[in-house]
Design a protein that fits this description.
Structural class: alpha/beta
Number of helices: 9
Low-confidence stretches: none
Mean pLDDT: 90
Strand order of the largest sheet: 3-4-5
Distance between the termini: 33 Å
Number of strands: 7
Length: about 200
């Protein structure tokens, strides 16, 4: 993900977008293609809407729309100041503390607000409870629409929702396919990982 987003350039090999080395694109234009939820994302001690837009100015209608799509609607309804609710108490004694699961939904809404054609999610449901995680994946295709979504995850349950799966082991690609085809290969790494996690749910 770090290389794909050009936070670093590869020291060997190349990454192509539409057959063109990504180094040949203008850096700012290339970055604009991506909306990313990093695993270690941060929220700031500012109002909710500014956290979503990452800007002092924003479209209130779009903020509401993105929060609703991210499954934050019920929590938002309980906030006295709505999208103007400030987080934490650094600058506002009435600032609201946010749980890990709530923060992850806000980060998802932030990624939607940018409206980039490619979404990248790094362990997007790590802080969600099982019900919230199920709802996230249940509505994901409708939420993403015609955008491309890339998931990076160790949670095999998330793979069932993906059209294409790439399995890495020791820094190398060892398998490609969809969930059904990869499970048919009982000697493959995907089959091994799937069954290692599935045993805890049987």
């Amino acid at each position: 993900m770090i290389l794909l987003c050009r936070l670093y350039d590869p020291t060997e090999g190349e990454i192509l977008l539409d057959g063109v080395n990504i180094k040949n694109y203008r850096y700012e234009e290339y970055k604009a293609l991506f909306s990313i939820i990093f695993q270690d994302f941060k929220l700031f001690a500012y109002p909710l809407a500014q956290n979503i837009a990452c800007s002092m100015s924003y479209s209130a209608e779009r903020v509401h729309e993105c929060l609703d799509k991210a499954g934050f609607g019920n929590r938002l309804a309980a906030m006295n100041n709505g999208i103007e609710t400030c987080f934490y108490k650094d600058f506002d004694r009435d600032g609201v503390e946010i749980s890990g699961g709530e923060a992850q939904k806000i980060a998802f809404a932030r990624s939607l607000y940018k409206d980039a054609p490619i979404l990248i999610f790094d362990e997007p449901t790590a802080a969600l409870d099982p019900i919230a995680e199920y709802e996230f994946y249940l509505h994901l295709n409708d939420t993403v629409g015609d955008k491309m979504a890339i998931y990076i995850s160790h949670r095999m349950a998330s793979c069932r929702f993906c059209d294409h799966i790439i399995v890495f082991n020791d820094g190398e690609i060892v398998q490609k396919g969809n969930h059904e085809s990869l499970l048919r290969d009982e000697s493959g790494k995907y089959f091994e990982l799937w069954n290692a996690q599935a045993q805890y749910y049987v």
